[in-house]
Design a protein that fits this description.
Layout: H1 3-26, H2 33-40, E1 41-42, H3 45-55, H4 57-73, E2 79-80, H5 81-90, E3 102-105, E4 108-111, H6 112-122
Parallel strand pairs: 1-2
Antiparallel strand pairs: 3-4
Length: about 120
């Protein structure tokens, strides 16, 4: 191959590459499912959604798809943690959350667990 042929091939490939880059830039990227959910979730919704996903992975994949579809179409604009929790309960998903009870004693923040341990050590 001569230098002129090689240069012609390079130019052709460069034009094709540039055309693909322009087409790629023209297409707006669709937001991911998590980005869509992040727009509508308020309060503790992510905490509840994550806990439910760990406990019921198959069911939550379907719930996620439905929530994303509703949010994308504009039918669902905001979901609080409490609303999501009640919704999942109505679906029959008994989501268990990590719950801590804290109190202040003599200026120190202590958990109920620590308080009970102290009481047991005194007796």
């Amino acid at each position: 191959m001569s230098d002129a042929e090689l240069a012609s091939i390079r130019q052709k490939r460069l034009r094709e590459f540039q055309r693909r880059q322009v087409m790629r830039k023209d297409k707006p990227e669709a937001p991911s499912a998590d980005e869509i959910l992040d727009r509508i979730f308020r309060g503790r919704a992510w905490e509840i959604f994550t806990s439910a996903s760990l406990q019921f992975p198959e069911a939550m994949n379907k719930v996620k798809d439905i929530l994303v579809e509703l949010a994308s179409s504009g039918k669902l604009t905001e979901v609080s943690g409490e609303e999501l929790f009640v919704f999942l309960r109505k679906l029959g998903l008994e989501v268990r959350l990590n719950t801590k009870i804290n109190y202040v004693s003599h200026g120190q923040l202590k958990s109920l667990e620590e308080r009970m341990k102290e009481e047991l050590q005194r007796t």
